[in-house]
Amino acid sequence: ADKINVAIDGPAGAGKSTVARMVAQKLSYIYVDTGAMYRAVTWYMIRKDIMPEDHDNVLQTVRNMVIELIPGEEVQKVIINGEDVTPHIRSLQVSGMVSQYAKIESIRTRLSQLQREMALGKGVVMDGRDIGTTVLPDAEVKIFMTASVKERALRRYKELKDAEQVTLEQLENDIAQRDLLDQSREISPLRRADDSILLDTTSMDIVQVVETIVSHCRSYA
Ligand code: C5P
């Protein structure tokens, strides 16, 4: 069958990356985690002390940045100017700041362009916030994955618990706050594409979600 592109969007902590990776594996497609790209840029900006308000500096820096994505079995690596930044991008500091940088036009333009290039050859499963609406509006299959804030916080909690000191309540607040910022920004906000399939995963397990998406992909071709 001909290869297609699959866009998976949704709010923070809906389980998009786990699911997208598994879907890609089943279809022998390439998985692209666009959130990791925004996180990597955020980490780099924080380390260079470049504040999101400093638009000129942000623009210069993002223009000159060399960004590489290396697909992997478990996690996709993000390399910025030759440096593997992957170990830093899931920290609470980056999660707390990423939406501030992700709303900046110069950053979105650069990253969207890279994302489109990666999808040119088809056979890509890409997850993010604006893939179905803006990055790949022609993706053959579009999924909008959600779950209640409580359930999403709980999933994140289980994932993070060992690594960082954080309460469930704190995570619930972080997630709700990030959703609000992502939905209300001016450029390509988090929004369900009209032609996407809505998947509420609150009471589904990962395997069910993956099966559902894969069957949509198979029935397309
Ligand atoms: O998916 P993840 O939670 O890693 O994304 C981190 C942040 O990156 C999001 O909260 C959002 O601010 C930003 N993002 C975005 N557009 C995407 C992917 C992520 O604005 N396509």
TrEMBL record:
<dbReference type="GO" id="GO:0036430">
    <property type="term" value="F:CMP kinase activity"/>
</dbReference>
<keyword id="KW-0418">Kinase</keyword>
<dbReference type="InterPro" id="IPR003136">
    <property type="entry name" value="Cytidylate_kin"/>
</dbReference>
<keyword id="KW-0808">Transferase</keyword>
<dbReference type="GO" id="GO:0005829">
    <property type="term" value="C:cytosol"/>
</dbReference>
<dbReference type="GO" id="GO:0015949">
    <property type="term" value="P:nucleobase-containing small molecule interconversion"/>
</dbReference>
<dbReference type="GO" id="GO:0005524">
    <property type="term" value="F:ATP binding"/>
</dbReference>
<dbReference type="InterPro" id="IPR027417">
    <property type="entry name" value="P-loop_NTPase"/>
</dbReference>
<keyword id="KW-0067">ATP-binding</keyword>
<dbReference type="GO" id="GO:0006220">
    <property type="term" value="P:pyrimidine nucleotide metabolic process"/>
</dbReference>
<feature type="binding site">
    <location>
        <begin position="10"/>
        <end position="18"/>
    </location>
    <ligand>
        <name>ATP</name>
    </ligand>
</feature>
<feature type="domain" description="Cytidylate kinase">
    <location>
        <begin position="6"/>
        <end position="217"/>
    </location>
</feature>
<keyword id="KW-0963">Cytoplasm</keyword>
<protein>
    <recommendedName>
        <fullName>Cytidylate kinase</fullName>
        <ecNumber>2.7.4.25</ecNumber>
    </recommendedName>
</protein>
<comment type="similarity">
    <text>Belongs to the cytidylate kinase family. Type 1 subfamily.</text>
</comment>
<keyword id="KW-0547">Nucleotide-binding</keyword>
<dbReference type="InterPro" id="IPR011994">
    <property type="entry name" value="Cytidylate_kinase_dom"/>
</dbReference>
<dbReference type="Pfam" id="PF02224">
    <property type="entry name" value="Cytidylate_kin"/>
</dbReference>
<dbReference type="GO" id="GO:0036431">
    <property type="term" value="F:dCMP kinase activity"/>
</dbReference>
